[in-house]
Amino acid sequence: MKNFLLLGVVLVLLSACSSKKSMISNSFNEQLSSNLYKNQFTGVLILDAITKDTIYDHNSHKYFIPASNTKIFTLFASLKILPKQIPALKYVESNDSLYFEGTGDPSFLHPYLKDSTAFKFLQKHNNVVYSSGNFEDKKYGPGWAWDDYQWYYSPEKNNLPINGNVVMVTPSNKIKVTPAYFKDSVLELATKNNRNEFSNTFFYGTQSNDTVEIPFITSNHTTTAILANLLSKNVSLTNKMPLGKKQTLYGMASDSLFKRMMHESDNFIAEQLLLVAGSVLKDTLNSKIIRTYILEKELNSLKQEPRWVDGSGLSRYNLFTPQNMIAVLDKLYSLIPKERLFTIFPAGGVSGTLKNRYVGDKQPYIYAKSGSLSNNYCLSGYLLTKSGKTLIFSFMNNHYRTSTLEVRTRMEQMLQKLRDTY
């Protein structure tokens, strides 16, 4: 008798689950067959985080330009390789000199992270020699738009970033320039450009009331000169560290960088984190090494091989499927506690790029990473249903000509339906 009762309960639960999936499927199919989606590409995959049951699937095996959804892969790589504290510098003390090299750590005097660990360390030494030879990457990622050179979201990459590799110009009685090394390079001039394309000459409108961030052209000599100005001492330059075991100086908590990358969709931090991972794994700053390692060693079971070319998603060369996204999100869900994971992702209606979208009734129901380029908008992450379920979802929209606002609004309606139904 007990077995029959148990069987009856199971059948009722399965029937209820099937009914909910059917309701969601009908609702989503109706939306995706509307005129809005006729001239664009859309892929959706929704998975139950616990049972691994597929709730909905639409074009999930097809490739899409992910934009900043790429940062989900960068986060996974960083969590797999980086220690709890970011390696800030590597160094060797030889005779009376301190030889040091960058690890790619983006937090060194970063305008928002404001980590001064490495700076204070260098201040304590009289003779410092900067070694630049461990950077084996390019300053821009493959397929980045050349005309983004002057905008805050596209700083150059290097092995020892300073101030996020941007010049901050702040209005006051007399404009404030950070790093101060560039104070004579900022011209008060009303122009549509922020910087000369080929030199570190910056422009700031005389009537502007906003602080602007302008990427500067990096070079080994520029880095050395900025450091010398900051430290008020001579900084020598070499391309090779002396013989001897390198020591590592550790800086701020890695999670602080992960949160900044995910909440603010910080492209610079994303790119630099892959370089830091290269420093840890191979003692070489090259993001391709890390991307290849992660795909071959940690994600070799992906059903479709991604095309992963940078850390931030600035490149349209990146190609990922919704199945790719779900697989990595599922691994993240298993890798770290949910409470920690959800603090790293933006929360709908509360934080980061989702602060004004996907608002819950009393608490967030969406923890996800958005990604946008012109004519592309993606959202992938975790959804909490009213029944207490945790779902993993990836929603990718490419090549639409309507407004992003309309695409986001439709997607929000569908995710609310998912929250309320399942």
UniProtKB/TrEMBL annotation:
Question: Where would one find the signal peptide in this protein?
Answer: 1-21
Give an example GO molecular function.
serine-type carboxypeptidase activity
Q: Which PROSITE patterns does the UniProt record give?
A: PROKAR_LIPOPROTEIN
GO biological process, alphabetically ordered: peptidoglycan metabolic process; proteolysis
Q: Which UniProt keywords apply?
A: Carboxypeptidase, Hydrolase, Protease, Signal
Q: Does the keyword Electron transport apply?
A: no
**Which PANTHER family does the annotation name?**
D-ALANYL-D-ALANINE CARBOXYPEPTIDASE (PTHR30023), PENICILLIN-SENSITIVE CARBOXYPEPTIDASE A (PTHR30023:SF0)
Q: Which family does it belong to?
A: Belongs to the peptidase S13 family.
- Protein name, as recorded: D-alanyl-D-alanine carboxypeptidase / D-alanyl-D-alanine-endopeptidase (Penicillin-binding protein 4)
Native organism is Maribacter ulvicola
